[in-house]
Design a protein that fits this description.
This is Enoyl-CoA hydratase/carnithine racemase. It is built from ten helices and nine strands. It is of the alpha/beta class and 245 residues long.
Length: 245
C-alpha cells in the first residue's frame, strides 16, 4: 500500500513529501493525520533542525480531497490537528512547491517560514468557486502578506495565479527552474540547519509572536463557516458537477 506521506532525515533536515499521486496529492483525513505525525516526529527529534515539505515536480497538492469523508466527531478532527501541529512548530518550516498548490496547498504556505517555488507552480484559493469560505488562518494571513485588495481579489474571484504573481504578492521567496527546485530548497534547508539552534528558534518565535496570536481560535471559526457552507445545497451541487466532468 502506498504511503500518503514520505519521511526522511538527512543533515539536520526532515524532508516530508506528500505522496498521494493517484489523487493529485489531495489531502484526506489519513493524509492529514500522517502529516501531523511527520511534523510532530520532526519537532521532537533533536537531530532535526529544519523541516522541508514538498510534493513532486508536477504537483504539490490539489488541496482537500472533496471526494473523501471527513471525521467530525468531537475530539478527533484530523484537519484541525494538522493545523494546530503546524502552528505549534518551533523549528523552521520550508516549502518547495512545484506544480499546482490549490486550496490548503496555498493556505499552508502562509504558515511556512520560507517558500521556494518552481516556475511551473500554480496557486489558488478556490473557496468561493465551490461555495465555501477561507480556511487555515488565511482570512488574516493573506491580507497581511499581500495587502487587502490583492488578497481580496485572489479570494473573491478564486482564480489561479502563477509563481511570478505569488512572488510579487509575497507568498513565495524565490522562483526557480523546476529542475533546480528541490536541490536548491534542500541546500537552503541544510544551510539553515547549521545555524545556532536557540537563536533560530527565538527568531522564529519573535517573528510570529503578534501576527499569529489567537490563530488556533481562528482555525476553528473559519472551519465552522467552511463546513456550514460545504453542507449547503449550492456547494453540494457545485462539487457534484465537478465529479461529472
Amino acid at each position: 500500500m502506498q504511503l500518503p506521506v514520505l519521511y526522511s532525515v538527512s543533515n539536520g533536515v526532515a524532508e516530508i513529501e506528500i505522496n498521494r499521486r493517484e489523487r493529485k496529492n489531495a489531502l484526506d483525513d489519513n493524509a492529514y493525520a500522517r502529516l501531523s505525525e511527520a511534523f510532530t516526529q520532526a519537532e521532537n527529534d533533536p537531530e532535526v533542525r529544519v523541516l522541508l515539505i514538498r510534493g513532486q515536480a508536477d504537483i504539490f497538492t490539489a488541496g482537500k480531497d472533496l471526494k473523501s469523508e471527513s471525521a467530525t466527531h468531537e475530539g478527533y478532527r484530523p484537519v484541525l490537528i494538522f493545523m494546530d501541529t503546524v502552528n505549534a512548530l518551533t523549528k523552521p518550516l520550508i516549502a518547495a512547491v512545484a506544480g499546482p498548490a490549490m486550496g490548503i496547498g496555498t493556505t499552508l504556505l502562509y504558515h511556512c517560514d520560507v517558500v521556494y517555488a518552481a516556475a511551473n507552480a500554480k496557486f489558488g484559493m478556490p473557496f468561493t468557486k465551490i461555495g465555501v469560505s477561507p480556511e487555515f488562518g488565511s482570512s488574516r494571513l493573506a491580507p497581511m502578506t499581500a495587502g487587502y485588495r490583492l488578497a481580496a481579489e485572489a479570494m473573491l474571484f478564486a482564480e489561479t495565479f502563477d509563481a511570478e504573481h505569488a512572488l510579487r504578492t509575497g507568498l513565495v521567496n524565490r522562483v526557480l527552474p523546476t529542475e533546480q527546485l528541490f536541490s536548491y530548497a534542500r541546500e537552503r534547508a541544510e544551510k539553515l540547519a547549521t545555524m545556532p539552534k536557540a537563536s533560530v528558534a527565538k527568531t522564529k518565535a519573535l517573528l510570529k509572536s503578534h501576527a499569529f496570536e489567537g490563530m488556533n481560535a481562528l482555525f476553528r471559526s473559519e472551519l465552522y463557516e467552511f463546513e456550514t457552507l460545504l453542507d449547503s445545497a449550492e456547494s453540494k451541487a457545485i462539487i457534484a458537477s465537478f465529479g461529472k466532468k
